[in-house]
């Protein structure tokens, strides 16, 4: 009678670890589908079969502790109950369910060190190892977290340090497309409204495209090239007077704006009448032209990254953080009387 094929032989033949082979044969969602299919194919070829009696005996001989339900939970953390976060969490929840995980939304006070620390301690106590940090109301330098206890991914750029895996909008490409769109409309003096802190924590993508735009004008010997140096209005709050002064000095004929600016709408006639492109636009905002974040893609990709880290037991700060960038097509205003 031939000797039964062992699990180790299956793992060796498939080129994976023994534990990976075991999870794959149990169809665990923590293992990539391609790997599961490969291991199953190798097991079938070698004639490997799981002995149900032995499997039950091994389970009974273990410590007797129940597996921690937190190990299959993805915690979505934010301090901002916005429609953006609602859309993102819905996408995270959907994808988590598809891969055999469960998503939970947690609101925490990231500005209160003790409160934030306590939040992560509670998650760790529950056995939750997968964290998706959603957009925060205001950026933070860091969080009081024992990162080695978690596999994390950040949506957006609200967390400056440490450098974790992240999923973001491609603001460089979208700024470039905004400039091209306005130029196609005949605009020649494009102004840029940029939140200094937001652009800085994202690596200055909008500013870099403004500089590229100026170099392009210089190469074309365009007389507007020198004036581009004054084309940026850096804003920090809601100071209409500062904007009015900049507007009078630069005299823009169009605007590229990194975020919706409600405090200027209706407060400055020059601002209201200009064609604008917003780099962030909600799907229901049909009266403005801009880019709507691909919530589904951002949320689903975040879950794919963190579930892959769980499968590899890759906890802590990654040596080489993965940054996934996504963009969408520009969405033109459709309401009557809306800005171009």
Overview of this structure, please?
This protein has 340 residues and is an alpha/beta fold. The chain folds into three domains: 7-61, 434 Repressor (Amino-terminal Domain) (Orthogonal Bundle); 69-169 and 295-326, 3-Layer(aba) Sandwich (Rossmann fold); 171-278, Rossmann fold, CATH 3.40.50. It is built from twelve helices and ten strands. The chain has helices spanning 7-14, 18-25, 33-46, 52-61, 83-98, 113-125, 171-184, 196-201, 205-219, 240-250, 269-273, 295-312, and strands at 73-78, 102-107, 130-133, 151-155, 165-169, 190-195, 232-235, 254-257, 276-278, 323-326.
- Compute the number of strand runs: 10
Question: How widely separated are the two ends?
Answer: 79 Å
- Overall pLDDT score: 83
Poorly predicted ranges (pLDDT <50, ≥5 residues)? 336-340
Largest sheet: 6 strands, parallel
What is the helix content? 40-55%
Order of strands side by side in the largest beta sheet?
Answer: 2-1-3-4-5-10
* Helix segment tally: 12
CATH topology tier name of the largest domain: Rossmann fold
At the first level of CATH, what is the class of the largest domain?
Alpha Beta
Shape: elongated
Using the 3D structure, state the CATH architecture of the largest domain. 3-Layer(aba) Sandwich
CA-atom Rg in angstroms:
26 Å
The amount of beta strand, in percent, is 5-15%
